[in-house]
TrEMBL record:
InterPro entries: AhpD-like (IPR029032), AhpD_core (IPR004675), CMD-like (IPR003779). It comes from the Bacteria. It holds the Pfam family CMD. One of its GO terms (molecular function) is peroxiredoxin activity. This is AhpD family alkylhydroperoxidase. The keyword Oxidoreductase applies. The lineage of its organism: Bacteria, Bacillati, Actinomycetota, Actinomycetes, Pseudonocardiales. Keywords: Oxidoreductase, Peroxidase.
Amino acid sequence: MDARLNLFGSPFAMKFLKHVTAAGRVIGESTLPAATQELVRLRASQINGCGFCTDMHTKEALAAGEDVTRLNLVATWREATVFTDAERAALELAEQGTRIADAAGGVPDEVWANAAKHYDEEQLAALVGVIAVINAFNRVNVLVAQPAGDYEVGQFG
């Protein structure tokens, strides 16, 4: 299976993705817990049907020490007992921010307020950033039908 467009062979695509990647690196410098960042990336990728990003962030989370049970339950986080209240708030914000077109009013105030109970302003900014960046990557990969399964931990530095 080949992608519709070779992102790595296109000078324009590489230039564009370099900037999106740089935005993602800034988020990594925040105080938002790394585990929360990966859970959010994984959940948004699942919702968007991005196999490449689902593969990537599952493998990166495992390599960083995340528990396989938690990763297996991300899609069903509401019923799972393995997530903290803060992680649940982040996952809810990620779902609402990813499905923004499904709600006429955007992200509900109560979803934001719940996240704000668990994260300070800088962490909320990082959470918004991680949701925005993963959704951008998901859309690129889904648009070009980027194949999934071959990602290797640390592949992009």
